[in-house]
Amino acid sequence: MKLQNKRGDKILSVYWFAILVIVAVGVVLMVNTFYGKGYDVREVEARILAEKVADCVYFGGESNSLLLTPQGTFREDFKDNFLSFCTLNFDPGKEFVRPEYYVEVNFFPDTNLRRSSFVLSEGNLNWKPDCEEKVADRSKLATCVEKEFFMNAPGGAVYLVKILSIVGKVQENV
Amino acid sequence: MYNKINSRGQVGETLTWIIATVIILVLVLFFIFGASLLASTKSISSEFRPSLSLTGHFIGTDPFLKKSLFTYVTLPSESKKIILDREFQRLLSQEGFAIDFNETKKEIILRYNRR
């Protein structure tokens, strides 16, 4: 009778140990699934990129002298040296890998806010169609941020500057 | 007779433990599923604020609005100011600004006049 009782206690201890293991594994899995997943920071990244470009084009109430002549006309060479003039680097650092970024800046004169008079663009244009997609789950698509502001140009002209900033990083962030 | 009653009791007790185990397993699986669902919502988006003490006026961060307002106050032409004002109202109604528009406008005009 006493022997039987002891065996029952043993079985119960093993059972409790198994439950403890199950709960511990469950907690580890919960923490791992929650903290193991990365944060999607692409929207903030795209906004920072747009702000950087905006500061490069227009800062402290003055437009970049490398972009506009004192007469108020756009310098074409700014297009070719856009990244270096704005100290931006889209180089992915690997060969045969396309940049994860795309930036487009449109300058609309106040006289015609529908027709852009100067365009700056740099980066991977293939990300741009992603901005048009209207789907709920955008984790597999690039993140697009569009910002605009008014800029005083030399010669009294005013431009509406529209900046489209895109961050791909579909694999890294999601 | 005694043995039969005893074994029936043991069966009942075992069943209780089995059901308890199943409930614990189901609960653990439910919480793991919940954790994975919550993990998919982790994102730092436009609601991200650089500082928790940030308030909704000039101190806030909307560099684009500030640039536009600075352009507005430095404009010599009144007619262009009217056009810009109209555009601000359009933007305000369409998407709004990250910071209080009227407060920021007042603050920039004040700062500009102090110069």
Verbal overview:
The complex is a heterodimer of chains A (174) and B (115). Chain A is α+β, with helices and mostly antiparallel strands. Chain A has one domain. In chain A, 36% of the residues lie in helices and 22% in strands. Chain A is built from 5 helices and 6 strands. Chain A has helices at residues 2-36, 42-57, 77-80, 82-85, 170-173; strands spanning 58-59, 62-63, 101-109, 118-123, 143-152, 158-167. In chain A, the strands form 2 sheets. In chain A, strands 4-3-6-5 form a 4-stranded antiparallel β-sheet. A two-stranded antiparallel ribbon of chain A has the order 1-2. In chain A, strand 1 (58-59) and strand 2 form a beta hairpin. The longest helix of chain A is centred in the first third of the chain and has 35 residues, at 2-36. The radius of gyration of chain A is 28 Å and the shape is rod-shaped. Chain B has 115 residues and is an all-alpha fold. Chain B has 2 domains: 9-41; 63-114, no CATH class. Chain B contains 4 helices and no strands. Chain B has helices at residues 2-40, 63-74, 78-94, 101-114. The longest helix of chain B is centred in the first third of the chain and has 39 residues, at 2-40. Chains A and B meet through helix 1, helix 2 and strand 5 of A and helix 1, helix 2 and helix 3 of B.
What is the gist of this entry?
Chain A has helices spanning 2-36, 42-57, 77-80, 82-85, 170-173; strands at 58-59, 62-63, 101-109, 118-123, 143-152, 158-167. Chain A has 174 residues and is α+β, with helices and mostly antiparallel strands. Chain A has one domain (42-173).
Helix-residue proportion of chain B? over 70%
Largest beta-sheet characterization of chain B: none
> What's the overall average pLDDT of chain A, rounded?
87
Major pleated sheet of chain A: 4 strands, antiparallel
Total tally of structural domains of chain B:
2
Strand coverage percent of chain B: under 5%
Low-confidence stretches of chain A: none
Distance between the termini of chain A: 61 Å
Written as H for each helix and E for each strand, in order along the chain, the element string of chain A is: HHEEHHEEEEH
